[in-house]
Each structure stands twice: as C-alpha cells, then as structure tokens.
Specification:
The protein is an alpha/beta fold and 527 residues long. It contains 13 helices and 22 strands. The longest helix is centred in the N-terminal third of the chain and has 25 residues. It is globular, with a radius of gyration of 27 Å. The N terminus is likely disordered. Its main location: nucleus. This is DNA polymerase alpha subunit B. Belongs to the DNA polymerase alpha subunit B family. It is found in: Nucleus.
C-alpha cells in the first residue's frame, strides 16, 4: 500500500534511477579491431597491461591558505623512483678521482698543467627552438616513416648498381608479390605480435612506393648470423615458400654513412663531460660543486659539457618536492654553474621534469647575453669544438636497444654492435616503437635526430657500464652518470663517473680512425 502513496515526481525519479544511463558513442567494428591489433603489434608485452589501465594523472596538491610554500605537481605512480646518496655517504666515499677506464694514444702528448686556458671555437648544430607536439596524425607519422624507408631503398639500389657484376640494373622486388626466383627485398623489421621480438615473430614491412606497405613473415633459420631489432631497415635476399613466408638466405645492412670531411686539429683540446643526475639526497649540490671545482682547478680544461637530467623525474627527492617548483630547482643549478665562470654547454634530457619530455628535445629557454659562458643545445646535438665533431645524446638508447635486440652467432662486442646500428640506420634513435619512457615526434626526429656523417666522437650517458670503444673511425664513449642510484649502503657506491678528453694537435686528418686513436687521451674517473 505504501507504493500507492508516491506522487508523480517520486515515480519519475524512481524510473530515472532504474532506466539505463545514456552511453557515449565509442568507435566499434572492424576499424576498431584493426586499430587494436596494430597497436598490440607495436606494444611490448610489459606495456600491454599498463596501456589498458587508467594512468594516475599528476595533480596539484592543495595547500592551506596560510602556507607560504609553493604547490608542486605530484608525479604519476608509474614513474620509477630511485634514491641518491646522502651528503654523509658522499663525503665518506673511498674512491675519489679513481680512474675507471683510460685510453692513451701512442702519440698523445701529456697535458701541460701550466698551459693557459684558451677559448675554443664551438658550433652547435641542433634544434633551435620549441615546436608544437602531439599534433601529429597517424597518417603524417606513417608518411614520415615511409619516406625514411624509401630513402634507404635508394641507398640499397645505389649500392647494388655500383657493384661490377651482372646486376648493373638491379631492382627491388615488392614485398608480398611471391615469385619463384631468389629476389632482394628492402623493408623495416617489425614484430607480428605483442611482446618482444623473437626469431618466430620477425616480419618485414615494405614501403608504399615499392610494396604498398605489405608485410611478409621472415624466416631467418638459414642465416649464419644476424642482429635485428624493431625499426631496423635491412635488405634481405631469399625465396618465398609455400606457407607464405620469405626464407632469408642473406641479410645486408645499409651502407654506412660517409665520414666527416678532412679535419686537422690546430691546437690541443681539453674538455670534460658529465651526465646527470647532479643532485644528492635532499637536493644537495655537493656532487655538482665537486665536479665544477675540479673543472676550474684544472688549468687545461677549456669547456665543460653537461648532459641532463638536471631535475630528474625519477629522483625520490624531486618526486616528494613540496617547498619549491621544479623550475626553481633548475634555476638554482644554473646559478651554481655560472658562479664558477667556466665555458659550459648544457644538453637537456627527456627525464628533465621541468622541461617538455619529447624527443628530440629542444634547448632550455633561457635568455642569455651574447658574451655568456653558457650555451644551450638540444637533445640530441652535433657539437663541433675547433673542428672536432662530437655526436652527443643524453637518451639511453644503448639500454633500450639492448633490451629489444635479438642476435645469433655474433662474434663482435655487444656494445660496438649496438652503436654500429645507430651509424647504419643513420639515426640517434632508430628503435620503432620507442621505449615507453621516450615520446618521439617522428617529423622532428627525421630532421634533427639524424646522423648525416660519421662524427669523430660519439658521447652518450647510459645506465650500462662505462666504456671507451673504437668503432670504425669513431671513438664511442659511455661516461655513465655523475650521481649513481643508491641501491645499497656501500660507500663505494656513493659516486658516479665523468669523462676527461684530451686531443693533441696534429697536421694529419683525424677522420681516419688510426690518427684519432693515436692522438686521444681519455679518462673516465670517479667523482
């Protein structure tokens, strides 16, 4: 009987509560299934679940009205958190200035401690200003990647036609057009399913011009050796089999990029290179101050090159920051660097929380007078110091490549092989899709993250073990990081590494690897 006592408004309210809510229209059907399958094929296995879960967005913590501190966004919980040594542990370290790795060329002169510092000529070839990102449509991205693939097709054709044999008029066959003869195909290595690349999931994707973007599964069981990763562009010679696969008999990597023009060093060069993080626990500057002090006290050091991150998004101190903004922390670092009055070049990182995390990363936007001692480059950058050409990157491409590369019967050193991939693919970051920590704008990367010629030095900062390697005519240096993650309480783990580079003057062309090797003196030292 109580139900009959309800008035019309109550009945309407009850019906609204019981009726299903209006659903927003979502894309469905074949197009959605195709798009989902394409996304899965380009997604590593460990990312698959995290992609489908709703991420925790950064939010602005509410501060009391009487609080004088400045609110700071809290980072996503998905961002890994690492700890850095505290001041006490850093000051008590036992391996100060220890030489970790050293290369001494056969004719490298000893550095003159009484030599006066001279200002070298420095040129930066890098991205100059900010650009719009996240405006790139999937069609524009596909067009950029296709253009890159077509350029490599032309390189392979030139290489084939330059050989003095019966293939003077060689042609590339379209992928997916099965023929009975042995034919050459050029395409990009992709994974045909979710997860990491393996020998059973290798697929070759062709260009729009030659193959209409068709794909074919690649059988590499007959190859004596190979080294492959997603995004790599290769030429494969083989035959089609009855099961629709392409049975590879020979794998050819792209022709190497040409060396730099003839270069002679008129004066001795001395510079130091270090990579972040630079802050200890609680934002202490002791590690950065120690590095700057060593650079100033060494009379031969002309330039200091610093690679990000400067305000590291993975730092536990930065993630818990409450009393100041990220920009204020960065400005304090800049003021500390300027106070030592040394010529400094700053390269950003995608891990800099105060800067746009996009690759390639544009330089820090700071108004500096023309006679300033501080220069700002992009990530990556091509740096020329008195003719010595250095390719510099703060992105950990070596670690990203090592986790995605598959290989068989390789006799070369792994680090040398990974760096040679960069030279063969003409790119600072050839991995497609990129690591989940790197957001690539392909249109900008195609122009500003491209290697057009072999540098003299290739300098990177990786979490892998520091090294000095000579690859062809290039000296590759992984200098490590200035402040290491504090994974234990050991005092020996309290300090990271940095590099000191000395190049003796010479009238010979250093573009040949032997001359460069002989005149270089490189040290990777503990802080």
């Amino acid at each position: 009987m109580e139900d009959f006592d309800m008035d019309a408004d109550d009945v309407m309210e009850q019906e609204n509560e019981q009726s299903p809510k209006k659903k927003t229209l979502q894309p469905s059907g074949i197009a959605l299934e195709a798009l989902t399958g394409l996304l899965d094929s380009y997604t590593p296995g460990e990312m698959k679940n995290s992609r489908r879960s709703i991420p925790t967005l950064p939010f602005q913590q509410q501060q009391p009205s009487h609080a004088s501190s400045i609110s700071t966004p809290v980072r996503s919980k998905n961002t890994p958190q690492v700890s850095t040594p505290n001041v006490v542990t850093f000051q008590a370290r036992l391996n100060k200035a220890e030489i970790v790795i050293e290369h001494i060329g056969s004719v490298a002169k000893a550095k003159d401690s009484t030599e006066r510092k001279t200002s070298p000529s420095i040129q930066l070839r890098s991205l100059l200003k900010p650009y719009k990102y996240m405006y790139q449509t999937i069609y524009k991205r596909a067009d950029v990647l296709n253009k890159q693939l077509e350029e490599f097709e032309d390189l392979f054709l030139t290489m084939l036609n330059s050989k003095e044999n019966d293939k003077a008029n060689a042609v590339l066959y379209p992928i997916g057009n099965a023929v009975q003869d042995e034919v050459p195909l050029v395409g990009r290595i992709v994974c045909d399913s979710a997860g990491q690349l393996n020998a059973q999931s290798i697929t070759l994707e062709g260009s729009s011009r030659t193959s209409k973007c068709n794909r074919v599964r690649l059988d590499v069981s007959s190859l004596s050796s190979y080294s492959l990763f997603p995004g790599q562009i290769v030429m494969v010679s083989g035959i089609y089999t009855n099961d629709g696969c392409f049975h590879a008999k020979q794998l050819t990597t792209p022709p190497p990029i040409p060396p730099t023009t003839e270069t002679k060093i008129a004066n001795d060069l001395n510079f130091m290179v270090a990579a972040g993080p630079f802050l200890l626990a609680n934002g202490n500057f002791s590690a950065l101050e120690e590095l700057l002090r060593r650079a100033v006290e060494d009379p031969s050091v002309q330039t200091l090159v610093l690679l990000g991150p400067f305000v590291d998004e993975r730092s536990s101190y930065v993630q818990k920051l409450q009393d100041k903004t990220y920009e204020q922390v960065f400005n304090e670092i800049i003021e500390k660097i300027k106070s030592y009055q040394i010529k400094t070049i700053l390269i950003p990182s995608v891990r800099d929380i105060h800067h746009d995390s996009i690759y390639p990363t544009y330089p820090f936007s700071i108004n500096e007078p023309k006679d300033s001692t501080t220069l700002y480059g992009s990530e990556p950058s091509l740096l020329t110091i008195d003719g010595l050409q250095c390719a510099v990157t703060s992105t950990d491409i070596l670690c990203h490549l090592s986790s995605e590369e598959i290989s068989s019967n390789q006799t070369t050193d792994r680090m040398c092989r990974l760096i040679r991939h960069l030279f063969q693919q003409h790119s600072f970051y050839p991995l497609i899709p990129p690591n989940e920590s790197v957001s690539v704008e392909y249109e900008q990367a195609f122009e500003h993250a491209k290697l057009t010629s072999l540098p003299h030095l290739f300098i990177t900062s990786s979490d892998l073990r520091p090294f000095i390697k000579f690859i062809d005519s290039v000296c590759a240096i992984n200098l490590g990081r200035l402040v290491k993650n504090q994974d234990s309480t050991m005092i020996n783990n309290a300090s990271g590494t940095y590099a000191k580079i000395h190049l003796s003057k010479t009238t010979d062309d250093i573009s040949t690897g032997t001359i460069l090797n002989d005149h270089l003196h490189i040290q990777i030292l503990r802080l």
